[in-house]
């Protein structure tokens, strides 16, 4: 679970002190941010989706990526489907996530990815989110992808994130925490600008994003200086 310092902006987060919040207050912040994005009018949602697609089409990571995974929007999330259509039009391969219980002794549920076709019929998962029905040999691990678009509940300008709290993406991408150099896929969080908060302190198990994209701009994670021995 993330510790964070809340930004003093009533449109995105409740006001308060700068101390890391308790579990209860973080839960409340999630509810607040989700409520804010759900309250966006349909015309605003559509405009944000168009702006996001224009922004990321110009990004070098999108242009170079061959295999791109996104998500099917729900709960007011910024819609990436225009970008999926742009990817398919350029001959790229698009994927959607599916939930699957693992075989790690605890049976933890992780995300796998299935190739998406616009004419394919999707089926709701246990959360009511549409996903491809194919399984078995059609499943691909995250490391198979070049670019993964991740929905976030909250973020800061350093590309730290607050997720839904289920830990699916962190469990799925935990292998990236052990890698120093070769890292795939590139991770880009997707959110409305109104979901930005002042600062988030990630915990050791949080898998960092490379960037966060909104309808207004791309927030790049700052590079850390590497000490010289």
Q: Using the coordinates above, name the CATH class.
A: Alpha Beta
So how many helices? 5
Secondary-structure element order, as H and E? EHHHEHEEEEEEEHEEEE
**Distance between the amino and carboxyl termini:** 33 Å
Shape designation: globular
| Average residue pLDDT | 84
Q: What's the architecture, going by CATH? A: 3-Layer(aba) Sandwich
Written account of the structure:
The chain contains 5 helices and 13 strands. With 229 residues, it is α/β, with parallel strands linked by helices. The chain has one domain: NagB/RpiA/CoA transferase-like (Rossmann fold), CATH 3.40.50. β12 (211-213) and β13 (218-220) form a beta hairpin. α2 (42-57) packs parallel to α4.
Index terms:
alpha/beta, Rossmann fold, two-stranded antiparallel sheet, 7-stranded mixed β-sheet, 229 residues
Please outline the helices and strands.
Blueprint: E1 3-5, H1 23-38, H2 42-57, H3 60-64, E2 67-69, H4 81-89, E3 93-101, E4 109-115, E5 123-124, E6 130-131, E7 147-151, E8 154-155, E9 161-162, H5 168-172, E10 186-190, E11 199-201, E12 211-213, E13 218-220
Parallel strand pairs: 2-3, 2-7, 7-10, 10-12
Antiparallel strand pairs: 1-11, 3-4, 5-6, 8-9, 12-13
Helix pairs in contact: 2-4
Would you summarize the structure shown here?
With 229 residues, the chain is α/β, with parallel strands linked by helices. It is 22% helix and 21% strand. The chain is globular and about 40 Å long.
């Amino acid at each position: 679970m993330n510790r964070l310092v809340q930004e003093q902006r009533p449109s995105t987060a409740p006001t308060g002190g700068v101390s890391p919040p308790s579990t209860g207050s973080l839960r409340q912040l999630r509810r607040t941010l989700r409520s804010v994005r759900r309250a966006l009018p349909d015309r605003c949602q559509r405009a944000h989706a168009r702006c996001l697609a224009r922004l990321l089409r110009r990004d070098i990571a999108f242009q170079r990526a061959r295999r791109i995974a996104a998500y099917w929007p729900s709960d007011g999330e910024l819609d990436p489907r225009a970008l999926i259509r742009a990817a398919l039009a350029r001959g790229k391969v698009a994927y959607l996530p599916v939930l699957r219980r693992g075989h790690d002794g605890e049976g933890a549920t992780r995300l796998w990815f299935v190739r998406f076709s616009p004419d394919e019929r999707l089926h709701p998962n246990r959360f009511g989110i549409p996903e491809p029905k194919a399984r078995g040999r059609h499943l691909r691990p995250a490391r198979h992808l070049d670019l993964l678009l991740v929905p976030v509940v909250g973020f800061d300008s350093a590309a730290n994130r607050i997720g839904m709290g289920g830990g699916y993406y962190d469990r799925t991408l935990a292998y990236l925490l052990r890698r120093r150099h070769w890292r795939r896929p590139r991770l880009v969080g997707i959110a409305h600008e109104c979901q930005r908060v002042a600062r988030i302190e990630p915990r050791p198990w949080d898998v960092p994003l490379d960037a966060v994209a909104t309808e207004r701009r791309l927030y790049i994670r700052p590079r850390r200086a590497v000490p010289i021995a």
